Amino acid sequence: MPAGLGALTGGYAGTSLGDLVLSPQDTETEPLVANFSESEFGGDIIKPEEPFPGDEPPFFQKFPDVIVPEAPGPVSPGAVPMRGANWDERRSPPTYRLANGDTFAGLAATYLGTSTRWLELYEFQDESFRSKRPDPSQVFVGDVINMPPDAHASFVLHTTCPDESPEPVPGGKASPLPSNVPTPTCIPRGRRGKGKTKRKKKKRKPKRTGMIVAGIIIAGGLGAAVLGRGL
Asked: Disulfide: which of 72, 136, 203, 228 matches 122 by Cβ 3.0-4.6 Å?
């Protein structure tokens, strides 16, 4: 018998392979256990008393007093500040120019009361915007989006100055301002709807066509005079 098998049977050289019996157990759940004949070894049955390392119980069963932290759940994007200068209420519907840190979920949390309405805000955009930005998470600073009546009503409510009453927005229902959003700067009624962003006018450069023509005429005359003297 090979030396390795003799060591397995406890060093009994006379042990035959017929005395080595494998117990019919499920090999997927428990390892096979070698049971040796009781008559051959004086009643000593070799069986593992402890489970194999692969069968160890989970950590929380071995150490019940240890608190295992739960995996964090999905984090919903927070609200973004109200930026009055990014609104243009002269358009219908009003538009908003995205700033750094703006997302559809953040804008929905600020203006629509909950970030879960981000898809509603995205679907409110026209077909040209959605074809240009098919992924709502891939938007860029400077993109101009349309704002629904509810968002406009929230903007009007929270940016109206204290000494004025907010103007009603047809079809819009304002939402409370989230607690983590700083109080926006009020916009006086006289400036509302006219936009706060001012475009710099380009200075027109004076036309110098006449000076160029005069220079050509003078140069031509001097050339003719020089030629006349030469002749």
From this structure: 136
Gap between the Cα atoms of 23 and 34, Å rounded: 7
* Amino acid occupying residue 47: K
Nearest alpha carbon to residue 100 among 130, 142, 137, 60 = 142
The total number of residues written for the chain in this structure: 231
% of residues, the chain, pLDDT over 90: 40
Whether residue 109 contacts residue 116, with contact meaning beta carbons closer than 8 Å, is answered with no
The single-letter code of the amino acid at 223 is G
Query: Which residue bears the tokens 């005395």?
Result: 19
Tens digits of residue pLDDT in 161-197: 999 998 899 999 999 999 888 889 998 887 776 554 4
Please, what is the average pLDDT of the chain? 73
Give the start-end residues of each E strand in the chain: 20-22, 34-36, 87-88, 95-97, 144-146
Burial class (CB in 10 A: 0-12, 13-18, 19+), 86: middle
Quote the tokens at residue 150. 């509810």
- Cβ pair 188, 161 in contact under 8 A: yes
Q: Residues near 201 by Cβ (< 8 Å), separated by ≥ 6?
A: none
Cβ neighbours of residue 76 closer than 8 Å, sequence gap 6 or more: 105, 109, 115, 116
For 135, phi and psi rounded to 5 degrees?
-100, 115
